[in-house]
């Protein structure tokens, strides 16, 4: 034992109480006890570390870190000091550093269950599943009767790509569950077991296991879906068909079941459309209210059959006044013949309804609203084909017919937007908003159009009508993680060349995705206890794909464009400062600036509203008086500190986004945004073009050309491809760093192929 760790019996008893105070979250009481020990043993490392974490939980982070570091220095072999240091990093969501601290803690106490459990959670968060499996295996050795430890090990093996090992673990665990009553947790565990068998590719075994556990599973729908899937995989067509028909009978509105039945019977092929139509007609007769079957019938129908079905669908929707009719029929516009049939039908209906009030000459009279919705459809149809004058005239005719229908004004606004008239579009959308002041959707649409017209102040006032009254609208949008608003406002500021605010908004969206990833941490333990394993594994996998979402791509694209603009602007001050420096001095100065920037970014946790933690630490009272106080005084003090804390949070320390403009490495910052896109959506043309722009400025010539090659393969006639090739050739003609002749030869050959 370290000499700095020895305590007299009296202080040792107090130290045990300090540990209890931390577990019970009695931070003020624990702090006073820790300070009483430190009066006699000022170098006691473990007490110093605990004092640090108490201070951290009392909003004195900077001071807390100093005490924890001092504690670690005074007792490098204490697992408590390292564990506390790891907890501090984990609280700051610095998981990689926390994992290092836990590794040190386990070096000096490899059998501590709490440290092992926390370490396994961190490894899962960091996606280091092999290490997580090792930690969970050790946990299981210490507590073999703890069900979450068995389940956690199985999940770690599955996520590490070893479903066979996960199965072995679950089988051992289930031996102890044979006589347990049927409940939700055990039901989910059995379905998870079945899923693992499926992941090994043993569909026969999965089907047998499913039949065995069916009576003990509460999720009957999942059992039926899995049975249909396994029978399909095993080629048992008749049994699979019966299984899918059973699912359709229970829910005829789910298009997945119907599509899988068609696929099972081979009716999705082009030469089997007649059979598909026959099957769909049979199903529609059984379930006439199923919109899913009706839509698929239109999809597979051709020629006269399609026209007959389209007539029934369109006339019925126009009679009922279904605003979403165009969205439904637009799916079939990819087929020129079907598109022509639909256009002819609706245009003929419009003319006939105006003339005689019926769909056909001498036909039955239709409701007066049928003409309104027919004109509404036609306006959208013309807008889709960019026949904008015709679309505008048609929607105006519809508005003259019924001037109080909100959807008409919204469509008119969209037509004006497509006509390149953003100001008029915003005005019309505001007219729509004023027709129904209680509709949040229309309010949001109006704000979006105002942002497209660069009327930021008006947009914020409009969106503020539905936000909290005591909070700034933009802050509320951040709190609600409203991606569309932050992205649109970012693009508006970028168009106005207000690059600081633009980056502030774009980075806010990027931080949303960081938050989504960090929010999963609490579920690593929760889901193992509740046995919601299928949903948990789906969550882990979806989190890994999260940054492939279109909203992230849109925000990243806007931010990268701004960073590229900043990178291309001459930095006169830098050139003056470095004019008289040696190369070594320049390198040292750049490294120093980079470290300062990284530190600032780390402290600036909320890019839109929160103040930096350093500022919070410097302005928070640092008194650690050990005098006793009454419970009332403590409560009053807590309220004062909380009010002070809330007040600081509501103050935006960087409203103009100047901190983002001060970056010394805009190209590197841009690459941090595009890297997830390259990993998750490399087949997206925009992703490759963004990567090219960055590689070009980094003078990574081969990677830049590789990006252009990918663009060429994805879309050979892309309008930007030629200009990008010219940009590449121009940059190669005067590189800042000489290119190796061998690399130059390879570059020339790759460019030549690309041009051809």
From TrEMBL:
<feature type="compositionally biased region" description="Basic and acidic residues">
    <location>
        <begin position="632"/>
        <end position="652"/>
    </location>
</feature>
<keyword id="KW-0677">Repeat</keyword>
<dbReference type="InterPro" id="IPR021183">
    <property type="entry name" value="NatA_aux_su"/>
</dbReference>
<protein>
    <submittedName>
        <fullName>Uncharacterized protein</fullName>
    </submittedName>
</protein>
<dbReference type="Pfam" id="PF07719">
    <property type="entry name" value="TPR_2"/>
</dbReference>
<dbReference type="InterPro" id="IPR011990">
    <property type="entry name" value="TPR-like_helical_dom_sf"/>
</dbReference>
<dbReference type="GO" id="GO:0031415">
    <property type="term" value="C:NatA complex"/>
</dbReference>
<feature type="compositionally biased region" description="Basic and acidic residues">
    <location>
        <begin position="594"/>
        <end position="605"/>
    </location>
</feature>
<dbReference type="Pfam" id="PF12569">
    <property type="entry name" value="NatA_aux_su"/>
</dbReference>
<feature type="compositionally biased region" description="Low complexity">
    <location>
        <begin position="609"/>
        <end position="631"/>
    </location>
</feature>
<keyword id="KW-0802">TPR repeat</keyword>
<dbReference type="InterPro" id="IPR013105">
    <property type="entry name" value="TPR_2"/>
</dbReference>
<feature type="region of interest" description="Disordered">
    <location>
        <begin position="574"/>
        <end position="664"/>
    </location>
</feature>
<dbReference type="Pfam" id="PF14559">
    <property type="entry name" value="TPR_19"/>
</dbReference>
<dbReference type="InterPro" id="IPR019734">
    <property type="entry name" value="TPR_rpt"/>
</dbReference>
């Amino acid at each position: 034992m370290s000499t700095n760790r020895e305590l007299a019996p009296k202080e040792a008893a107090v130290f045990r109480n300090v540990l209890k105070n931390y577990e019970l979250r009695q931070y003020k009481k624990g702090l006073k006890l820790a300070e009483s020990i430190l009066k006699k043993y000022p170098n006691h490392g473990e007490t110093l570390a605990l004092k640090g974490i108490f201070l951290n939980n009392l909003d004195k982070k900077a001071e807390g870190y100093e005490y924890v570091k001092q504690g670690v220095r005074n007792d490098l072999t204490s697992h408590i000091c390292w564990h506390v240091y790891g907890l501090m990093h984990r609280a700051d969501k610095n998981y990689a550093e926390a994992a290092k601290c836990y590794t040190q803690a386990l070096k000096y106490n490899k059998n501590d269950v709490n440290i092992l459990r926390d370490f396994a959670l961190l490894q899962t968060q960091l996606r280091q599943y092999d290490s997580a499996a090792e930690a969970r295996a050790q946990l299981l050795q210490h507590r073999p009767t703890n069900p979450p430890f068995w389940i956690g090990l199985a999940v770690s093996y599955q996520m590490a790509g070893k479903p066979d090992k996960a199965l072995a673990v679950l089988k051992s665990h289930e031996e102890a569950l044979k006589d347990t009553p049927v409940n939700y947790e055990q039901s989910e565990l059995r379905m998870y077991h079945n899923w693992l068998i499926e992941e090994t590719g043993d569909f026969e075994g999965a089907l047998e296991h499913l039949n065995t556990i069916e009576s003990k599973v509460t999720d009957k729908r999942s059992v039926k879906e899995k049975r249909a899937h396994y029978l399909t995989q095993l080629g048992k067509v008749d049994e699979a068909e019966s299984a899918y028909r059973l699912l359709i009978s229970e829910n005829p509105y789910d298009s997945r079941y119907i599509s899988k039945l068609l696929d099972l019977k081979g009716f999705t092929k082009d030469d089997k459309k007649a059979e598909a139509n026959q099957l769909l007609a049979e199903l529609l007769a059984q379930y006439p209210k199923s919109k899913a079957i009706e839509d698929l019938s239109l999809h597979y129908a051709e020629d006269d059959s399609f026209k007959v079905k389209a007539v029934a669908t369109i006339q019925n929707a126009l009679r009922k006044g279904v605003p979403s009719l165009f969205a439904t029929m637009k799916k079939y516009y990819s087929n020129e013949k079907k598109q022509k049939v639909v256009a002819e039908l609706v245009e003929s209906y419009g003319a006939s309804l105006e003339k005689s009030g019926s769909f056909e000459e001498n036909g039955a009279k239709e409701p007066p609203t049928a003409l309104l919705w027919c004109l509404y459809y036609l306006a959208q149809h013309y807008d889709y084909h960019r026949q904008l004058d015709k679309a505008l005239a048609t929607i105006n005719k519809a508005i003259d017919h019924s001037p109080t229908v909100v959807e008409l004004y919204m469509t008119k606004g969209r037509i004006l937007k497509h006509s390149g008239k953003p100001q008029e579009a915003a005005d019309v959308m505001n007219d729509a908003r004023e027709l129904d002041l209680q509709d949040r959707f229309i309010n949001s649409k109006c704000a979006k159009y105002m942002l497209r017209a660069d009327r930021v102040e008006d947009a914020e006032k409009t969106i503020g009508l539905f936000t909290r009254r005591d909070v700034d609208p933009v802050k509320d949008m951040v709190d609600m993680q409203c991606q569309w608003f932050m992205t649109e406002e970012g693009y508006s500021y970028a168009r106005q060349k207000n690059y600081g605010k633009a980056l502030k908004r774009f980075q806010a969206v990027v931080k949303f995705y960081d938050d989504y990833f960090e929010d999963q941490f609490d579920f690593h333990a929760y889901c193992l206890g509740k046995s919601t394993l299928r949903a948990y594994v789906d969550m882990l996998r979806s989190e890994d794909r999260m940054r492939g979402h279109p909203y992230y791509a849109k925000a990243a694209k806007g931010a990268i464009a701004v960073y590229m603009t900043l990178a291309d602007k001459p930095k006169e001050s830098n050139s003056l400062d470095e004019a008289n420096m040696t190369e070594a001095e320049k390198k040292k100065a750049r490294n120093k600036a980079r470290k300062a920037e990284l530190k600032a970014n780390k402290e600036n946790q909320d890019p839109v509203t929160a103040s930096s933690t350093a500022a919070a630490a410097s302005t928070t009272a640092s008194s650690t008086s050990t005098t006793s106080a009454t419970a009332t005084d403590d409560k009053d003090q807590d309220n004062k500190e909380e009010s002070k804390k809330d007040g600081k949070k509501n103050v935006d320390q960087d409203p103009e986004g100047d901190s983002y403009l001060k970056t010394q490495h805009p190209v590197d910052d841009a690459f941090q945004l595009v890297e997830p896109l390259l990993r998750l959506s490399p087949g997206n043309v925009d992703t490759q073009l963004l990567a090219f722009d960055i590689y070009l400025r980094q003078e990574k010539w081969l990677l830049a050309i590789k990006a252009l090659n990918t663009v060429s393969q994805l879309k050979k006639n892309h309008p930007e491809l030629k200009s990008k090739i010219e940009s590449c050739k121009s940059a190669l003609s005067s590189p800042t760093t000489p290119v190796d002749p061998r690399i130059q030869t390879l570059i020339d050959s790759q460019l030549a192929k690309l041009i051809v």
